[in-house]
Specification:
It is built from five helices and eight strands. It is of the alpha+beta class.
């Protein structure tokens, strides 16, 4: 566990437990709807109800860390192998440095595993997220076509594949 000093109340970072899944799913959905839904076709957001996020969180393998304060879970990061799959920070902890801290912990873990780089997919148009990563020495390697789930099947979407060498 890690705490950020000087904050009131302190923010702790710890490994996620099954008991955190509901809070993580709720936060994931809230931030996704704020930051990703406006960049996707409406049918993608319509498909992503709370049950979608609960199933997704329950099915994640790899490593997940949660950031919390006295009010509860307010951020999380998840990665598997060299892929950072999620880094989401709720409004109340944005600007606290917790996103940077979670990202640094994911990078360190991937490096300790002996992998030469870490990568992620950033939804094309999510300029704030791209700038966040670029300030931390990530770069766009390529634009990739991906798909997003809807009730009527997948729809095409595009992402920046971003990478950071860890050597």
């Amino acid at each position: 566990m890690s705490e950020i000093a000087g904050e009131a109340p302190p923010i702790s970072i710890r490994a996620a437990a099954a008991a955190d899944h509901a809070a993580v799913a709720a936060l994931y959905r809230e931030v996704w709807m704020e930051t990703h839904a406006p960049l996707q076709p409406p049918e993608v957001a319509a498909f992503r109800d709370i049950e979608f996020f609960r199933r997704r969180v329950a099915g994640l393998g790899g490593t997940m860390l949660v950031a919390s304060d006295a009010a509860g879970v307010a951020g999380f990061a998840h990665w598997s192998g060299d892929l950072l799959g999620q880094l989401y920070i709720g409004r109340r902890l944005r600007g606290s440095g917790i996103g940077h801290r979670l990202l640094a912990m994911a990078e360190a873990s991937v490096k300790e595993a002996g992998l030469p780089l870490i990568r992620l997919y950033c939804l094309l148009g999510n300029d704030a997220a791209r700038a966040f990563y670029e300030r931390r020495q990530w770069r766009v390697r390529q634009i990739l076509g991906r798909t997003a789930e809807t009730a009527h099947g997948p729809v095409p979407t595009r992402v920046w594949e971003m990478v950071k060498p860890l050597g």
